[in-house]
Amino acid sequence: MPKKAVLIVIDGLGDLPCPELKGMTPLEAAKKPVIDSLSAEGETGFMNTIAPGVIPGSDTAHLALFGYDPYLFYFGRGIYEALGAGFELEESDVAFRANLATLKDSIIKDRRAGRDDKYMKELYSSVDGMKIEDIKVISKHTSEHRGVVIFRGNGLSNLITDADPHKTGEKPLESKPKDNSLQADKAARLLNEFTRRGIELLSNSEWNQKRVKEGFLPGNVILLRGAGAYRKVDSLEKRFGIRMSCVAGGALYKGVARFVGMKVLNVLGATGDKNTSLKAKLDAAVKAKEESDIVFLHIKAPDSFSHDGKPVEKKQFIEKIDKEVMKEIKENFDVVALTGDHSTPCSMKEHSGDAVPVLVWGKNCRKDKGIFSESNPSPTLFIRGLDVLNILLSKIEKLDKFGE
Amino acid sequence: MPKKAVLIVIDGLGDLPCPELKGMTPLEAAKKPVIDSLSAEGETGFMNTIAPGVIPGSDTAHLALFGYDPYLFYFGRGIYEALGAGFELEESDVAFRANLATLKDSIIKDRRAGRDDKYMKELYSSVDGMKIEDIKVISKHTSEHRGVVIFRGNGLSNLITDADPHKTGEKPLESKPKDNSLQADKAARLLNEFTRRGIELLSNSEWNQKRVKEGFLPGNVILLRGAGAYRKVDSLEKRFGIRMSCVAGGALYKGVARFVGMKVLNVLGATGDKNTSLKAKLDAAVKAKEESDIVFLHIKAPDSFSHDGKPVEKKQFIEKIDKEVMKEIKENFDVVALTGDHSTPCSMKEHSGDAVPVLVWGKNCRKDKGIFSESNPSPTLFIRGLDVLNILLSKIEKLDKFGE
What we know:
- 2 copies of one chain form a homodimer.
- Chain A is an alpha/beta fold.
- Chain A has helices spanning 26-29, 33-41, 58-65, 70-73, 77-84, 120-125, 182-203, 206-213, 236-240, 251-259, 278-288, 301-307, 311-332, 387-395; strands at 5-10, 43-48, 94-104, 107-110, 131-132, 135-141, 146-152, 221-229, 244-247, 263-264, 294-299, 335-339, 356-362, 381-384.
- Chain A has an 8-stranded mixed β-sheet with strand order 10-9-11-1-12-13-2-14, with helices on both faces. In chain A, strands 3, 4, 5, 6, 7 and 8 form a 6-stranded antiparallel β-sheet that branches.
C-alpha cells in the first residue's frame, strides 16, 4: 500500500510568552493530548520557513513549504490571490488584489466601503473590459468589498508600488516603478490611469446611486495592491513525481497550491476564519488521501487571533484543532507533519522572524524526547520550509536517493 | 606542534528505533564508554549530510563530507569506483561499474556468475581494447565477479540509464539517454553496442568453456551500471591548503578520496566488511597523522548490517569500534570528529533522509551536555556534511578568517 502523508499548517502558530497566559505561549498553554501523543512518538524541532530571522509572508511561506524556493518562484501576491479566486491566468498577466473603497473630497474615508457586498459585483463589472493603451482590464468581485483586477497584455512588470495607501484619511497613491525598466514604468502608468478612470466611472455609477439611496457607503474607487506577474512553473508532479491536494479556506493558500499544481478542493464550510468547519475540512482531507501522496490542510484562525492580539482565543482554537481534527488525522495517515507557516506573536500582532515548532510523526520516524513547542528540551529537527517536502517524501518512501 | 584531526565515518550509522533492541537504536543500545567520554567532553548534535530529508548516496555523502558540494562535484558513481580501484582516468572518460553475469536464453540467471573470481581476469581482458566507433574500451577485473569498464574518447556524457537491470530473470536493459544531448545519445548507443558485442565475445570464450568444465557458471555478459564522467577538480590542498589521508576498505570511499586529492593508503586487512582488521586501520590512521592535517577513517560494516536488517549485529560492531579503535584514537589525535555518512535504518534496509548524530571532541572544542545519539537532550551542532571540513579546520587552527 502506498503511504500517505498530511501536512497540517496552523497559520501563525509560533508565538512569544504572553502575560495573559502566565508567560506561556498559546501553544504551551493549550491542552492538546493528541498532539502531545504525536510528539511523544515522533520527531520534533524548529523550522525557519525561509531562513532564520527572515519574516515570511503568507505567500512566500507556503511556496517554501511546497518545495518552491520563494527567492526563485515568488512573483508577487496578486497572482496567487487571483489563482485562488479561480481565475485562469495567462503568461504575462499582471494581477492585483482590489478593494472597493469610499472616497470623499478625494480622500479615502473607508477602505472597505462599509465591508458589505451590496451591488459590489456590478461595480466591479462596470470597469471590466476597460482598455488602457494596449492592455485589457479584467475586473471581478470576489467577496464583500474585495475583488481581483488583472491587466492582460504584454510588456508589464509587477515591480510597482501600490495605489492603495493601506489607511484612511489619504488620497489614493500614485504608483511608482520599483526599478528602471520600461515594463515597470508602463505598469505604474497604467495603474494610475486605471485608478483615475475608475473613480470617474464609479462616481457616476447608477449602482452607487442605489447604494447611497439604500443607506450604504458608495464604492467609488478601486484601490489596487500587491501586483503580481504570472509565469507558469513546473508542477509538483513534474518536479517531484507526486500528487498533492489542498484543503484550505482562504483564497491565497488555494492560489499558491494551484500555482504549484495541487488539486484544490472546494470544501463547503471551509471559510478561512474562526467559524470554519473543521469537521468538513477533516473529512475532505481524509477523502483527498485516495488521490494524493500528500494532503495539505491549512487552518487559518490562530493567525487571525494573533493579528488581533488575542492569545487566549488562539490557545482555545489550538485546543479545538487538537480535539476535532488530530485524532482522526492520526488514524488516517501514515505520516503527519504539523507546523505553522510562520510565527505571529500576539504581542506584536504581526508576522515575526521567529522559528516555528515542527513535528513529524508516523512511518519511518524517529522518537526523540522533544515536545511540540517554542521551547524544546530535546529537538532533533532544525529545518527550513524548503526541507519539509523532502522529509515527507522520504518518510512515505517516494524520494529517490541522490547518488548511489 | 601542528594539530591533527581525524574524521571517523561509521557508514550508515543513524537508525530508527528497533524492536529487537527494546525500541532503542543500535547506537543507543551499544555500550561505548570511550565514545561516551568523548561526547561528555565535546560537542554533539545532528548532521544532515546533504540537506534535511534528502537521501544521500554513499558517493554524494562523502563528497559533501570532504567539502565538495555534490550538487557541483558529483559526476556519477562509476568514476569514483574506477579511481578507487586504482585506475588513472583521463578528462572526458566515462567509467562504469561492471558485473560479469550469467545469461541463459537471453535472460540473466545470476547477476554475479556465482560470485567467484575464476578466470574473471581473463574474461574482463577479453573485451579490453575493443573499439566502438571512435571510442576505446578499457576493461579490467577488480574482485570476484566485479570489474571496471571505461569508454575512452570524446563526446560522451554520463547521463544515461544502466544496462544492468539490478535483478535476475530479466534481459540486459537497453540504455537510454537521460537528456536530449548528442553526448548522452552517443554514450547510450555505445553502451548498448558494448553489451551486445560482449555477449558475443564472451559466449564463445575459451575461458568460459573452462569455467563450465570446472563446474562454474559462465560469465557471458558484462552488465554495466553507474556511468560517471571524469573531470579533474581542484584538490583539497589547492582549495583548502591541507593534506588529508584516507584509510578505507571499500573502493568507492578510496575513489572519492582520490578524486579530491587525498593520499589513499593501502592497508592490509582493511576489507570494507565485518571481517576487516580494525587494528590495521587504526595503526594506519595513527601513522598517517605524520603526513596529514586530517586523517579520514572509514568503517563500513555497520551499514552492511543495516542493509541486511541486523540491528543486534550493528550494535555489537559499534561496541567493537568503541573497544578496539576509539581509545587509541583519543590518545593520538588533537581533534576527533565522529559521525556517519547517512542513516540506514535496519527497519528500512536502505539509506534514509534522517539526520546522523555527530560528535566533535578535542582541542578548541566546547563542552555541551549532549550525547552522541539519534535523540539528544542538549545538542549544539546542527550542521550539513559540507560544514564538517570547516569545523575541523577551525579546530586545528588551519582555517583563515573570512573577511578581516
